[in-house]
Write a structure and sequence with these properties.
Hydantoin permease; transmembrane; 346 residues; Transporter; transmembrane helix
Length: 346
């Protein structure tokens, strides 16, 4: 029973780490999968296999190394010197994402709840500080609350789409996109998300003693991500091509279900922003603890204060420059993971 509960917590943490605001809004699924037509079902299946296999191997490697942060893993994958530089670059990107997530939380408060932007920032920072002070177990608990709600909403959307006249679109819509681009999309998507998920998966793998918990947690987590991808693709396909014009496609679908589901889904999006924020902030703090000889609470406060400051300035220009480069590094990282574990079996 105890192992079963821990497996579920690992699975939910894995899902919550990958399923960020872009996923919950539907924008990521639309860009990486749905716009490619019926082939997206196959590319989602391929992406799911990667999430299961590499996710498990990632946590296994962290378990064997007793890794405290993703730098310990990157040194093994890239070597001592290059691994340090890769980790430094990842620190910069992680900080960029934490800042954008914090800004997103402020925007939700301002535009949807009609409260001030600063209120959203401060509420998110206070909640984050309380949770992050309790470590990886608290992050797992938060994900164990948010992810089941996300799964429930996905089920509701699937049921709603099932009764739509265009419910079969996911199997018949076509795309004029290049086949190389279509089949590279799941590889890039998985590489980027798994490279980012290191921030939480590595310390979680290093902290959990039982390998079987990591195996089954990774299996259920990867499969859960695949089911969420498929559910969103199924719903979005039924609304194509019109749905592509919206910044929050899934939110547009929820408006058709009534006011209460729309408000509830808004809270889910905030929850996904929050889980991504605390996950990345935790990974960043663990990384800095290995480099800076300061108390963990001081490092955490510095990260949160700096995120708060930069979130007022805006970070879009820096991220637009970093994301393509990080995408390339993520692909190299995934290839090295596959190469190192090519003889491993599930």
């Amino acid at each position: 029973m105890r192992n079963g509960a821990q497996i579920v917590r690992v699975a939910f943490t894995y899902i919550g780490t990958v399923v960020g605001a872009g996923f919950a809004s539907g924008q990521e699924i639309l860009q990486f999968f749905t716009r490619y037509g019926s082939l997206a079902t196959l590319t989602i299946a391929l992406s799911t296999l990667f999430f299961i296999w590499i996710g498990i191997q990632l946590m296994f490697m962290a378990h064997e190394l007793k890794a405290e942060s993703y730098e310990d893993l990157n040194k093994v994958l890239f070597g001592e010197k290059i691994g340090k530089w890769i980790s430094l670059f990842m620190m910069l990107v992680l900080f960029g994402i934490t800042t954008v997530m914090l800004a997103g939380a402020g925007t939700v408060f301002e535009e949807q709840l009609h409260l001030s932007y600063t209120t959203g920032l401060l509420v998110t920072l206070i909640l984050s500080y309380v949770i992050l002070n309790r470590g990886i177990k608290a992050i797992m608990t938060v994900n164990s609350i948010v992810v089941p709600i996300m799964l429930c909403f996905s089920l509701i959307i699937v049921i709603y789409t099932w009764h739509s006249p265009a419910s079969g679109n996911w199997l018949r819509i076509t795309s004029d996109e290049n086949l190389v681009q279509i089949w590279f999309a799941p590889f890039l998507y998985t590489a980027f998300n798994l490279a980012m998920a290191q921030a939480v998966l590595v310390p979680m793998g290093g902290a959990i003693r039982d390998r079987s918990v990591l195996y089954w947690g990774g299996l259920l987590g990867g499969a859960g991500i695949g089911l969420l991808l498929l559910a969103a693709h199924y719903a979005l396909s039924a609304q194509m091509p019109g749905i592509a014009q919206f910044e929050i496609p899934m939110g547009n679908i929820m408006t058709k279900l009534g006011y209460l589901p729309q408000v509830a889904y808004l809270l889910v999006i905030y929850g996904e922003i929050f889980t991504t924020f605390i996950g990345d902030a935790y990974g960043l703090s663990m990384q800095l603890q290995q480099r800076i000889k300061l108390p963990p609470k001081v490092i955490l406060i510095c990260i949160l204060v700096l995120s708060y400051t930069v979130s007022h300035i805006g970070f879009k220009t820096l991220l637009s420059a970093l994301y393509p480069l990080f995408g390339v590094i993520s692909v190299v990282w995934l290839v090295l993971m596959i190469w190192r574990n090519r003889r491993s079996t599930l």
